[in-house]
Design goal:
The complex is a heterodimer of chains A (518) and B (379).
Chain A: H1 4-45, H2 48-82, H3 84-118, H4 125-154, E1 159-162, E2 167-170, H5 173-177, H6 180-211, H7 215-238, H8 249-258, E3 271-278, E4 283-290, H9 293-299, H10 309-334, H11 340-349, H12 353-358, H13 371-379, H14 385-414, H15 421-429, H16 433-447, E5 452-454, E6 458-459, H17 460-463, H18 469-500, H19 514-517
Helix pairs in contact in A: 1-2, 1-4, 1-6, 1-16, 1-18, 2-3, 2-7, 2-18, 3-4, 4-6, 6-7, 6-15, 6-16, 7-14, 10-11, 10-13, 14-15, 14-16
Chain B: H1 5-40, H2 44-55, H3 58-75, H4 77-86, H5 88-108, H6 114-144, E1 148-150, E2 156-158, H7 162-165, H8 168-192, H9 195-225, E3 227-231, E4 248-252, H10 257-261, H11 267-284, H12 288-310, E5 313-315, E6 325-326, H13 334-361, H14 368-373
Antiparallel strand pairs in B: 1-2, 3-4, 5-6
Helix pairs in contact in B: 1-2, 1-3, 1-6, 1-8, 1-12, 1-13, 3-4, 5-6, 6-8, 8-9, 8-12, 9-11, 11-12
The chains are: A mainly alpha (518), B mainly alpha (379).
Chain lengths: 518, 379
Amino acid sequence: MISDAVVELSRWQFAVTSLYHFLFVPLTIGLSVLLAIMESTYVLTGREIYKDMTLFWGKLFGINFALGVTTGLTMEFQFGMNWSYFSHYVGDVFGAPLAIEGLMAFFMESTFVGLFFFGWDKLTKGQHLTITWLVALGSNLSALWILVANGWMQNPVGAEFNYETMRMEVTSFAALIFNPAAQVKFVHTVAAGYTTASAFVLGISAYYMLKGRDAAFSQRSYTIAAGFGLASVLAVIVLGDESGYTDGEVQKAKLAAIEAEWHTEEAPAAFTVIGLPDQEAMKTHYAVKIPWVLGLIGTRSIDTPVIGLTEILANNRVHIHNGIKAYGLLQQLREGNREETVITEFESLKKDLGYGLLLKRYTENVVDATDEQIELAIKNSIPQVAPLFWTFRVMVVSGFIMLIVFVIAVVASSIRKSRNDWILKLSLYTMPLPWIACETGWFVAEFGRQPWSIAEVLPTFLSASSLSEWDIILSLSGYVFFYTIFLVIEMFLMLKYIKLGPSSLHRRRYHFEMDQRG
Amino acid sequence: MIFDYETLRIIWWAFLGVLIIGFAILGGYDLGVGVLLPFLGKNDEERRVIINSIGSTWEGNQVWFVMAGGALFAAWPTVYAVSFSSFYFALLLALFAMFLRPLGFDYRSKLAVPAWRENWDRALFVGAFVPALVLGIAFGNLLKGIPFHFEDNMRIVYFGSFMGLLNPFALLAGLISLSMFIMHGAVYLQIKTIGNINERAKKCVIIFTIATLVLFGLAGVWIITLDGYHISSEIFPNAASNPIAKFVKREPGLWLDNYGHLPGLWAVPASAFIGGGLTLLLSRFDKPGSAFIFSCITIASIILTAACSMFPFLIPSSISFNSSLTVWDSSSSIKTLNVMFWVTVIFLPLIMIYTSWVFRVFRGKVTVEHIRKNNHTLY
């Protein structure tokens, strides 16, 4: 039987490698679009400075892109290597969007990225611009399919368990693709990527302006980033993926945990701004609440209640008892019993099979689980509240600060003369915020799904490969070792090129080359 | 729905073959070039010529590898789960080495410090050498069968070790893949370069083509006595995928069974030898473009030879024969195979078209002058 330690280590490894991967992905998604916008401006106006902007920000894009590709490979390997039961159990459904991502998006992005860097002299202006847009399209489509896969983990629609193959199988591809959880996630995530790239360009441009270098170059970059960033951060906030939290029990549990909503309140529910959530006592100490707001955000109505954790636990109790029955019937089916009554009863109970599997963590033989084991399974059928409560607030606060920064930046850049040092400093020093928001957002989405890897279908505990603790300690150390070195090298190169600025293009018209111009 | 389950399974076996061969051909020369880098490039400029001969297209080529993994996940999920978790440390080794490639290409020439560049050159060598060898070793182990079985509820348990993967036959397979990629990379460099590098590449073509064919011949002799696998119970090619519902036997020589039943299959290994011979000849007479076509054929034939031996097996189990994964019992559902068939039929030709266009744009020789002229923009 699989040990808690192996599962914990596998989860840590997945968290470390995907959080690290996600340092580079949002910037790739957003910067590819910004590059396309800059190059479009170049092609439309014919002004060389916009080409220089595309080239310079393109250089930084390249440094970032290399690590995105490097760490993306890990993600694809890792499902099979560390989550082999997951891969077997849901590959029929989950594998398809990943494969489509490769065919439709990753191929396009990777094939054309070479042309983006090296095709300038070999293509016409129009052709090169098309390539840049295709790279941007590729990276955005890539996000779409990855999030279709991830959305299905949150809200597994369009699939059914098949006892003959002992796995989930697709019943409707349309449901899988148009899964509301996936759609809102996609919009939320790419808009977050656009915001990240905008903050990146905004902050670095502000740095040049503070240093009084390359004014024309940096002001134009600043203006584009400010406008694009404001639109993007508004999209992130307004289209925040909260509306996706209405589908499925696990999404509801996630929403309740984020808000530390222990009991269902009368609609519209109040929003807990801050407090100290206490899972044992099922209450939030020192809670500061704003009436109505949670109901409005969570349900977009004033009369639908936001369901609380106590009620979710009560529902899970029923699900788990049904799940135990379903598991017993499954065992009969796996032993070859094909009696009509067994099949019919199993089919009617199988949607709760996953809840039966939750007990696998506490007992090998699910059907004769003791009352204590069942109580334990129920208690752990919702995520831990405090980490979600806090990370969500960090994300939201980061988002709103960015909104303020972008509003100020747009105002400042539309009044040309107001080159205000404090505005520039604000733009520079708030640069890390989108990364903080992206990482905490990822955490909220995935930690909030626990104890499931596939909501209500497959517990995380069962998903891991049957490896030994040492196997994973070794691989995890390897990842941490390599990723740390890579990050140091990447930051070193990135900072070097940021400091050089457009002078790194050797166009003989930027700051550090002025002396040599002669 | 046009196809039945059996047909779709065979189509997806073929698609997987197309993707693996696609990677071996396109990603293969990139790996070969990477291995040759420190030996054929005697100074920084020459090494930049070699790196830039593949620099603008390697990224797309590597997606064939990612795609083969993705297709495995979508169409053969149990095969993906068993192979990736069983080859844990082998894949980890290949993965860590492959980490070095995107960074090596992109970061190497961004600084003009010699020590920086030399270290990235080493990284690019390791990033090519290790996967070229390890992927071959993994395939060798597929022919041997790997020690896994299914517990209750289809949980996969692997009883082997990393050292167990390094058995003599698998090492031979590793050397085959290494030398065929080097052969292929050398032919490619002969096309893309002039002068010194071109001359050195030409010599490598001779050495590694001969090495590939000799090692491949050796594996062919070995396979006569190597244990092969065979489904001994009735086959239900349209049944739900349940890999523990059949009986499998293991005996020496069974991997030649298919060749016995269909003698026409001998054309496949034969074409590896003919292709290799022609590669050698055409390269010798400075026709590297045509030689390249034949080195592609050689590589495809070598992979197909193994695939034809093993069909319908994908991963035989060496400790629980009946748990072996075959084309008939480890695929996705008919619905997934069907939808993914249409997605592939639409996108794979599209990919081939735009990839060919990109290759056309970047056609022509890479020279030292070219590097000097574009000192700041090239890799």
